[in-house]
Amino acid sequence: MDHTNSNFIRNLIKKDLETKKRDHIVTRFPPEPNGYLHIGHAKSIVINFGLADDFNGKTNLRFDDTNPLKEDTEYVNAIKEDVEWLGYDWDGLFFASDYFQEMYERAVLLIKKGKAYVDDLSQEEIRQYRGTLTEAGKDSPYRNRSIEENLDLFKRMRNGEFANGEKVLRAKIDMSSPNINMRDPVIYRIAHATHHNTGNTWCIYPMYAFAHPLEDAIEGVTHSLCTTEFEDQRPLYNWVVAECEMEHVPEQTEFGRLNITNTVMSKRKLKQLVDEKVVDGWDDPRMPTISGLRRRGYTPEAIREFVKETGVSKGAGEVDSQMLDYFVREDLKMKAPRTMGVIRPLKVVITNYPEGQVEWLDAEINPENPDMGKRQIPFSREIYIEQEDFMENPPKKYFRLFPGNEVRLKHAYFIKCEEVIKDAEGNVIEIHCTYDPETKSGTGFTGRKVKGTIHWVEASQAIPAEFRLYEPLLLKDNLNEEEGEEKDFLDHINPDSMQVLNGYVEPTMKDVQVQEKFQFFRHGYFNVDPKDSTKEKPVFNLIVSLKSSFKL
Ligand code: ATP
Ligand code: MG
Ligand code: MG
């Protein structure tokens, strides 16, 4: 199902092409390199690249790097890697900072036209003078400086004669506009800082609202797609393009942000989780970052399908994280080999099985995809089962192992629990069972039935493995409030978001590669961790469990 087939942005582009308003389309994905991409960005990526693809257009990857204080080359590289991993190729790769000279010249043009002025008010004073929704703004005492004086002061700002915050350049628009964004917005500020791309060439930097429309115009972007919090800035966007006399006129259209339950979706908050060591880096598998999702084991296909299913609309609203899980299960169902792993091991000795004997059993690699063939797994006198598959005093309807009861070992035999071995404190440390050779899997045995089938791993050839089980990072929904009125999301961290367990996997897992994905029988889908896995001890990250009540 592809809901992006018809949406208001697609319809707009179609109309623009039909009416010949445009003869081609250019979109852009414009991240600020001040953090790693999250799944919200994936939505913007899918929309921008997807629409351009559908209309034979082009999409640029543009780093919106106009703030030297927060940006870093580490983020630039991570963003490129993530966009490629999601499956997209950009046409042009640009840095907004490469346009600083042109932006400067356009600002000078505004001054010459009497459309911009240097202001000496402080940031706080500017805020006070700006007024409110119900109260008009007040003119700055510097608003009527002469063009000559403004040109001179702006040049001196650029030459580094003033300290940070001493002066700004403001657009001269309308202090009584009902749209506060139009009340003489600041378009340049002083920042004596080293920029990741331009070094120390500049000490004045354009503000987003001035820079972004110019970037779009310079690159020939036709449809500048952004999220709805920029809707109020659209008049300013158009003002900048027009007053700066840009030859190409891009147009801004807004769509609703993607938010997901039980997580936060803002680079600033995600950075806080990293800086305060709540998580182990941007690519921690609990993070909603693209790199975190990749390390957890989500696939690009699942992320793209999920994002498409959320649709394109003006509205925001939270999407249930279980919907993403649904798509990764769908994607892995046919692809991921089945295997058995014991996460909390309990030793079982099969007392009537000959000592020293090992037999190899056939097991299908993926019953839903028989083309994947078969694997061979060993069976012998000692195996591991899951602790929770045994109970000494089971409740009613417990069909797994308990004294006197018989269960099926997947791909192997029926075993019956004969004896429970305990340590001095009374903890169960071993189960003694007998097996029935008649019941071998695949022989068509129908003599009697058992109600439980459990998984297991043969002990002598078992490979020790670490399992990392994950739960949501945050215990509360609606933590994606607009900036300013947000709740303290750090109060809602789930203390049990990761559980690390040591168990065993089949010897067929001897040569697993990082990022390989498996379905562990009865447990769920797991990914081989790319950072901490070793040849001796693989680490498996739980992607999703098998069952869900979620319905699409
Ligand atoms: P954040 O608040 O997480 O830092 P941002 O909007 O400041 O996000 P940018 O790097 O400026 O981050 O975003 C690049 C593009 O991705 C922008 O066009 C932005 O609108 C879009 N984008 C960011 N977050 C989301 C989201 N949750 N849903 C859809 N698009 C998003
Ligand atoms: Mg931004
Ligand atoms: Mg932001």
From TrEMBL:
Domain spans labelled Glutamyl/glutaminyl-tRNA synthetase class Ib catalytic: 25-333
GO CC terms, sorted: cytosol
Residues binding ATP: 32-34, 38-44, 227, 257-258, 265-267
Keyword field: Aminoacyl-tRNA synthetase, ATP-binding, Cytoplasm, Ligase, Nucleotide-binding, Protein biosynthesis
Subcellular localization(s) per the UniProt record: Cytoplasm
Catalytic activity: tRNA(Gln) + L-glutamine + ATP = L-glutaminyl-tRNA(Gln) + AMP + diphosphate
UniProt-listed SUPFAM superfamilies: Nucleotidylyl transferase, Ribosomal protein L25-like
All copies of domain Glutamyl/glutaminyl-tRNA synthetase class Ib anti-codon binding, residue ranges: 336-436
Motif segment ('KMSKS' region): 264-268
Domain of life: Bacteria
Binding site for L-glutamine: D64, Y208
Residue intervals of the tRNA synthetases class I (E and Q) anti-codon binding domain: 453-529
UniProt GO molecular function: ATP binding; glutamine-tRNA ligase activity
EC code: 6.1.1.18
Keyword Cytoplasm: yes
Keyword Aminoacyl-tRNA synthetase: yes
InterPro entries in alphabetical order: aa-tRNA-synth_I_CS (IPR001412), Gln-tRNA-synth (IPR004514), Gln/Glu-tRNA_Ligase (IPR050132), Gln_tRNA_ligase_bac (IPR022861), Glu/Gln-tRNA-synth (IPR000924), Glu/Gln-tRNA-synth_Ib_cat-dom (IPR020058), Glu/Gln-tRNA-synth_Ib_codon-bd (IPR020059), Rbsml_bL25/Gln-tRNA_synth_N (IPR020056)
PANTHER family referenced in this protein's UniProt entry, alphabetically: GLUTAMATE--TRNA LIGASE, GLUTAMINE-TRNA LIGASE
UniProt subunit comment: Monomer.
Family from the record: Belongs to the class-I aminoacyl-tRNA synthetase family.
Matches recorded under HAMAP family: Gln_tRNA_synth
Name by which UniProt lists this protein: Glutamine--tRNA ligase
Originating gene: glnS
